[in-house]
Amino acid sequence: MPKPAFSGRPFNAHFVDVASTAGLRAPTIYGGVETKKYILESTGCGCAFIDYDNDGWMDIFLLSGTRLGDAPPETTNRLYKNNRDGTFTDVTEKAGLKMAG
Questions:
Q1: What does the pLDDT look like over 44-55, one tens digit per residue?
Q2: Could you give the C-alpha distances from 32 to 15, 16, 40, 43, 56, in angstroms and in order?
Q3: How big is the CA angle at 49 (ends 67 and 52), to the nearest 5 degrees?
Q4: How far apart are CA 26 and CA 77, in angstroms?
């Protein structure tokens, strides 16, 4: 199909990175830092917004991969509990989810 004509309407969205302020500070480890040698290293991970503790607020589960060489010690999936004020607390270890891969 041909590309549709440009609408001419303005795109008035403004995106702001608030991850650190919200408490989402751990890195997502997946593949090499400077280069990716295999396609497997470039496909990324994933995330889920779930209410894991049934309190009515969406929590965040971030998947992390690894590196083909040695993975850094902070390599793990992360579970963040919603604090109901725009911030999240890392409850990965408390939930027994700390593991690489």
A1: 788 999 999 999
A2: 27, 26, 11, 12, 37
A3: 100
A4: 10
Residues in the chain: 101
Q: Rounded to an integer, what distance in angstroms lies between the CA atom of residue 42 and that of residue 29?
A: 11
Residue 21: its H or E element: helix 19-22
Q: What is the pTM of this model?
A: 0.76
Residue located via tokens 């889920």: 48
User: Is the Cβ–Cβ distance between 48 and 61 less than 8 Å?
Assistant: yes
Q: Are 63 and 47 in contact (CB under 8 A)?
A: yes
Structure-block tokens of residue 17? 């990175």
